């Protein structure tokens, strides 16, 4: 067990990241240069939703395979870090293994859900409209 795990911090390995992003949620930033693994995941969503007047929405359930990207776990014996990630926010320094509030905020951002699919957005809008009456 790593020092981060013993303190209740999840660490870098296993973080979900965005492979195509150049922002704070990118795999390069969140994984601190360790690389990432890609895995298929079956996601079930509401789809083909229809609003019936008045006032209900009926949807089907659709399954879709998506790829998720998670940071690789670096074995504890490795201590070398590529020079191009020095000073990056959220990456542990070589001198210290302590986590910071910024590090935790980036971790929480990386775990947020995907935005709703268009059909799910329709359901949300229809439900809000029925509450207004």
UniProtKB/TrEMBL annotation:
It comes from the Eukaryota. One of its GO terms (molecular function) is frizzled binding. Keywords: Developmental protein, Disulfide bond, Extracellular matrix, Lipoprotein, Secreted, Wnt signaling pathway. It is found in: Secreted, Extracellular space, Extracellular matrix. GO terms for biological process: canonical Wnt signaling pathway; cell fate commitment; cell morphogenesis; muscle organ development; neuron differentiation. One of its GO terms (cellular component) is extracellular space. Ligand for members of the frizzled family of seven transmembrane receptors. Belongs to the Wnt family. This is Protein Wnt. It comes from Cyprideis torosa.
